[in-house]
Amino acid sequence: MELVYFIIASFLVVIVPGPTVSLIIANSLNSGVKAGLLNVLGTQFGVLIFVLFLALGFNFISPFLDEIIKTLRVIGAIYLVILGILAFNSKINLENNKKIKLEKKFFFQGLIVILTNPKLFLFLGAFIPQFINLENSVSYQIIYLGIIFIFVATIFDSAYALVFGKFRDLLVNKYLKLLNRAGGTILVLMGIWMFFY
After folding, report:
1. Residue 59 lies in a domain
2. I need a labelling partner for 43 at 20 to 30 A (CA). Which of 15, 24, 50, 93 fits?
3. Helices 65-89 + 100-115 axis angle, to 10
4. Cβ(81)–Cβ(16) under 8 Å?
């Protein structure tokens, strides 16, 4: 029964719009479905890194969690604003999906944004331990629950990429500049929100 509660909680965390969802939507609008899905791949790889890090050193990082969150929130906010400004002024390239360099860019954008996302720290550092049974291996349980969270997040974040990527495909010929500005504005606003939150 606790596993069901954890899955529901993971779903609620994932569907709440945040930096990750904003990045996926902005890039899906700007560059298509594949860009959004590469963001998802990058973000979930970042989640896996944190899950393994948490499993190996939860007791060590707990006392420093507040300072880590504050520092990463500021870095993440600045990064999102920069991405937003670049997206706002860039041109949509219909050949993005064929370029390996751009594929790497979208993956690493997702990775950086998730690694600087305070929500992820709060979730992994404060929420997962609520579902841990101290009679069993703590590290194993953290990894197990973390992988479930990654699975849930991948499904719903990919849905954002698919929906907004298809929306972009329908409108790209008429509203190229508008889509860029919409995506850039989303990222800038989310960066500002993160900075002052």
Report:
1. yes
2. 93
3. 140
4. no
d(CA 35, CA 148): 24
pLDDT tens-place string over residues 98-116: 455 667 889 998 998 888 8
The predicted-structure confidence for 114-162, as pLDDT tens digits, reads as follows 888 766 766 676 667 677 776 777 788 888 999 999 999 999 999 989 9
The 8 Å CB, 24+ separation contacts for 4-10 are 5/131, 6/131, 6/145, 6/148, 7/148, 7/152, 9/127, 10/148, 10/149, 10/152, 10/153
pLDDT score for 46: 92
Phi/psi at 180 (nearest 5 deg)? -60, -45
178 φ, ψ (degrees, to nearest 5)? -65, -40
Torsion of CA 146, 147, 153, 158, to 10 degrees: 150
Measured CA to CA, the distance from residue 103 to residue 105 in angstroms comes to: 5
Owning domain of residue 65: 2-7+29-196
Q: Is 54 among the domain residues? A: yes
Instruction: Work out the pLDDT band at 39, boundaries 50, 70, 90.
Output: very high
In a domain, 16, yes or no: no
Burial degree of 167 (CB within 10 A; 0-12, 13-18, 19+): middle
Region class of 32: left (phi > 0), else alpha (psi between -120 and 50), else beta: left
